[in-house]
Write a structure and sequence with these properties.
It is a single chain. This protein has about 425 residues and is mostly beta strands. The chain has one domain: Neuraminidase. It is built from 1 helix and 29 strands. Keywords: Signal.
């Protein structure tokens, strides 16, 4: 009996030693091998790009007391899912959106209609004959119904990303970049009221350089009740440009646009951009999370890696706050505005809690969160709190959520995907206090 116990102890010792050695070889901390946060969801296959990408886009929305998402259903295409909070599962509603596996989407719920913009994704030269489409749905009796005349064509070209916004007159706007050779061009287009009757896409007619590098992106937001704003990055000049347009004015004349620099400085921008507005805010503030390139060519771990940029229409000025530093090794930010607690929630990717070191800023890992006051944002140091983490696979990335602000009634939901296990994950919780 004693001999058997010794044998069992020896086997256990070997197993533990094996785990420790394996963890060391992989750069994984043995003290945190069991770390898990968030909830596993459906698996996916057959889609060309990470299904929760891209950085400026939103895949989730809140309506009729539930969270919804545009998710990839293997073998069927993109589909509308509803979150069952009682069972912690995403349920397929059976409403199919875009069947194309090569697309990525941006969603917008306006209280009456659901708009889903879907673009064919390309990271290189733009291809024609690859239309970006707008789908519009009505909601009744717990079901979404595609409206007649949709999908409508926004553009006939592929793009790395595309986002939409709705102005105070009911017009839907879209922006994206098109790449040709060594430069790209910031495009915009707008519909008639309700999302029909799209015109010919045009270059932002502004007194700024609408030709950033091929790796740069643009994003659009409605704000201050009657304004549209487009922000785009230009890594060549270290600039984030901000072009605004008054609702109702002709969109194709330069005189109807105002342009200024939101960020300027060497390596002050990358192509990671997410922008939100608080429509109920009488001051019309706009919040943007922007990644810098300050980690490149330096070992300094104290430089700003993620910035929160706040635009105040009353003064026309921008303020900048550091969300995370180069030593935190973070990437792909999303922000959510919380009216219940007057907070900005910043979410992003960083190495998993059980992984030592940082291969590079941009590596997959886990999803983290920090918060700060919307009035005077100051973020604590460090990576923040982990909210989504797969204990078995440190490859989480591309966090996404909603354009809408959140409150005590909605709670807060974010979603990410693991490109190795091909699985969705999400975090769902009530709203608390600042972290």
């Amino acid at each position: 009996m004693l001999k058997m116990k010794k044998s069992v102890r020896w086997i256990i010792h070997l197993v533990v030693l094996s785990v420790v050695v394996t963890g060391s070889l992989l750069g994984v901390s043995s003290a945190a091998l069991a770390a898990t946060a968030g909830t596993r969801s459906i698996t996916y296959s057959g889609v060309s790009n990470p299904p929760t990408a891209d950085k400026p886009q939103s895949k989730l929305w809140w309506n009729a007391g539930s969270w919804w998402a545009n998710m990839w259903k293997t073998g069927s295409g993109w589909s509308i899912y509803r979150l069952n909070r009682a069972t912690h599962t995403w349920v397929d509603t059976g409403v199919r959106t875009d069947p194309r596996a090569s697309t990525s989407s941006d969603t917008l719920w306006d209280g009456t209609h659901l708009y889903i913009a879907s673009n064919v994704v390309t990271a290189g030269n733009t291809a024609s004959g690859q239309p970006a489409r707008l789908y519009r749905y009505s909601y009744a009796g717990g079901k979404y119904t595609l409206n007649p005349g949709f999908p409508a064509t926004i553009s006939n070209n592929s793009s790395e990303s595309l986002t939409i916004a709705k102005d105070s007159t009911g017009v839907i706007w879209a922006t994206w970049t098109q790449v040709s050779g060594t430069r790209s061009t910031v495009y915009v287009n707008n519909s008639l009221a309700g999302g029909t009757g799209w015109g010919r896409p045009f270059v932002v007619p502004a007194a700024a350089d609408p030709h950033p590098t091929p790796d740069d992106l643009s994003a659009i937001v409605a704000y201050d009740g009657d304004e549209i704003g487009i922000m785009w990055t230009d890594q060549a000049t270290g600039t984030a440009w901000w072009a605004t347009h008054d609702d109702g004015k002709s969109p194709r004349t330069a005189a109807s646009w105002k342009v200024k620099q939101a960020i300027k400085g060497s390596k002050r921008v990358d192509d990671h951009l997410n922008i939100k507005s608080l429509q109920s805010d009488p001051s019309g503030r706009v919040y943007a999370a922007v990644k810098t390139s300050l980690n490149e060519g330096t070992t300094d771990k104290t430089l700003a890696q993620l910035l929160l940029v706040v635009f105040k229409p009353a003064t026309g000025s921008f303020t900048q706050t550091t969300i995370a530093r180069t030593g935190d090794c973070v990437t792909r930010p999303q922000i959510i505005l919380d009216t219940a607690n007057n907070l900005v929630h910043a979410f992003y990717t960083a190495p998993s809690t059980y992984v030592r070191g940082c291969a590079f800023s941009g590596t997959a890992g886990s999803i983290y969160e920090k918060t700060a006051s919307m009035d005077k944002p100051v973020f604590v140091s460090g990576r923040g709190k982990v909210v989504i983490e797969d204990a078995a696979s440190p490859h989480m990335n591309n966090v996404t959520s909603s354009k809408q602000s959140v409150n005590s009634g909605t709670g807060i939901v974010v979603m990410a995907s693991n490109s190795v296990t091909k699985r969705y994950w999400f975090s769902d919780r009530s709203l608390g206090t600042a972290r």
